[in-house]
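WARN retry 2 of 3 for item q-0093 after timeout on previous attempt; input resubmitted unchanged.
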Amino acid sequence: MIDGIDRTILRHLKEDGRMTATALAAKVGLTVAPCHRRLRDLESSGVIRGYRADIDPAAIGLGFEAIVFVTLAKVERSIMSDFEERVAALPNIVEAQRLFGSPDYLLRVIAADLPAYQRFYDEQLTVLPAVERLTSTLVMKNLKSNGGPPV
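OK item q-0093 returned
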């Protein structure tokens, strides 16, 4: 169970994941050793899943985004497992969720532009196992991304 101090640590790390343990300790009102111990505990328990750079896709030439809803022709464990493995291996799919109801999956796809997305759609998405229907919605503007849970 996490307490108020842990939540404060998480709030600060959510804002600046590169913050040193010394700076973090000062922000939360602890000395370095107990702050570092709490940080290790949050990491080892899986509350903190990792640290990564938040990269702007447009800044690296991937400014086109689409949301793709996928309906499978048949929903069986082996088919879903194969589908999910193939989706996880495609780097242009930056988020994927399995949904209750219809459609079966939601995929967030990034590409350089519309022609690049069309090639990805035609060559990668349409050949995924057991796909019955793909429905794309183009993203006009990303208002909030990668916000994480409220802490």
